[in-house]
């Protein structure tokens, strides 16, 4: 089955919310989803990809500084911090904010991350961000450490997990949102000046939210692996919360947007919660080694859609491709009971559907069996914040190519590919090409990583970045005052949002650097999170190529905990 649905983000001057329009294929499963906040109707035609060489576009032969990109990507998370900022804060144009979060509800919810260019703290995308940051370190922690950035990366993870510990106030209670998107989007203010609602919303037994609780469990389980050796007490605490949250999510099932109506227009759970339950179980299995978590993934493979959905995207909402690739890792490594093999083989079939869809090599399934590519070679899923799908695909393709190499498997089987299997090296080549596209190897020669290279977006749709820094002018800026004096300016933002990856170009590689063009110029934490590991890996490979000449993409299995 394949499904494509979309969720849109409501912003100032945006049109009325659209409709989610999942395209259901044969069999049982759940609709996949997109970048958030208002649902875009209509399924995309995923066309056969252009040749990989086309990725080079107008910047052929340019060597990228992946170390610089890694350093900048980690700075971005400091710009997105909410709460009381530490003395070590490197993004100095930001200041303390949200210091009364949770006060009305009698709970301390100070901290965490703002997801994008506004000031609501949404639990589901924040948790996915932390999961992907942690996965980056689990796979490529050695490379991050070699680049001297492990400390900053661990800080980025911990800023999120510290908040989740606060938000998980009872075994069956999780605070899933702080702030009101509707009122927030009527204002254009610095976070330090916020006058909008800081109402907090929770899920509990009577108001379940298996998706947000499951993703938070996954984030804390993955983070526990990262901190296992460096901070074993903290790792144990994270794992304890993860196990409780998974039990809560599984026992009291339901979509969180049915319990928290305020989130529906922003981060609606279009795919449902079953993918998050499988996702959380796999991360808990990886963190604990307990067989019952893998039993859960195998026993629920069909009913939860894990072996049913053939998905062409991976995002904060749709986890199936990640689930299928993690399950395939266990198969390739032989880390399973004999009775699990046949089910894990079916997980692998769906994992390779995703990989082959990105490669444009699925010959069966019609026009929507493959991911469309722009003329410049960018993977294209949909108009709103397409870069989230590009960066997440790059990471999944890279990780999968490593798993294949580690297992001594040299090829991927694509459905109906008449020319035979696809070499695993081609999988990683596509991952690298997507990263290079982000960094400027594209027809426009624009880096969509802000602050990197000579040409990047200067008018990012971001309240704090677009207004004079609080440290330079502590004069209060009111709700609509920001619109009057800052939002409509044609000049560059006064603060560079270094390390942010914006929504990016359209299907024809066209990009308009305008603050009002939030579909393309707004950045999100989950756009950048997968790139932390990718930049680190590519920095290591580039260094090896300079020293020894080009080498194969050998897998790196050292974790942050092992470094």
From TrEMBL:
<dbReference type="InterPro" id="IPR001701">
    <property type="entry name" value="Glyco_hydro_9"/>
</dbReference>
<dbReference type="GO" id="GO:0030245">
    <property type="term" value="P:cellulose catabolic process"/>
</dbReference>
<feature type="active site">
    <location>
        <position position="461"/>
    </location>
</feature>
<feature type="transmembrane region" description="Helical">
    <location>
        <begin position="40"/>
        <end position="59"/>
    </location>
</feature>
<dbReference type="Pfam" id="PF00759">
    <property type="entry name" value="Glyco_hydro_9"/>
</dbReference>
<dbReference type="InterPro" id="IPR018221">
    <property type="entry name" value="Glyco_hydro_9_His_AS"/>
</dbReference>
<keyword id="KW-0472">Membrane</keyword>
<keyword id="KW-0378">Hydrolase</keyword>
<dbReference type="GO" id="GO:0008810">
    <property type="term" value="F:cellulase activity"/>
</dbReference>
<dbReference type="InterPro" id="IPR008928">
    <property type="entry name" value="6-hairpin_glycosidase_sf"/>
</dbReference>
<keyword id="KW-0624">Polysaccharide degradation</keyword>
<feature type="compositionally biased region" description="Low complexity">
    <location>
        <begin position="550"/>
        <end position="563"/>
    </location>
</feature>
<dbReference type="InterPro" id="IPR012341">
    <property type="entry name" value="6hp_glycosidase-like_sf"/>
</dbReference>
<keyword id="KW-0119">Carbohydrate metabolism</keyword>
<keyword id="KW-0326">Glycosidase</keyword>
<keyword id="KW-1133">Transmembrane helix</keyword>
<feature type="domain" description="Glycoside hydrolase family 9">
    <location>
        <begin position="66"/>
        <end position="534"/>
    </location>
</feature>
<feature type="region of interest" description="Disordered">
    <location>
        <begin position="542"/>
        <end position="563"/>
    </location>
</feature>
<keyword id="KW-0812">Transmembrane</keyword>
<keyword id="KW-0136">Cellulose degradation</keyword>
<comment type="similarity">
    <text>Belongs to the glycosyl hydrolase 9 (cellulase E) family.</text>
</comment>
<protein>
    <recommendedName>
        <fullName>Endoglucanase</fullName>
        <ecNumber>3.2.1.4</ecNumber>
    </recommendedName>
</protein>
<feature type="region of interest" description="Disordered">
    <location>
        <begin position="1"/>
        <end position="28"/>
    </location>
</feature>
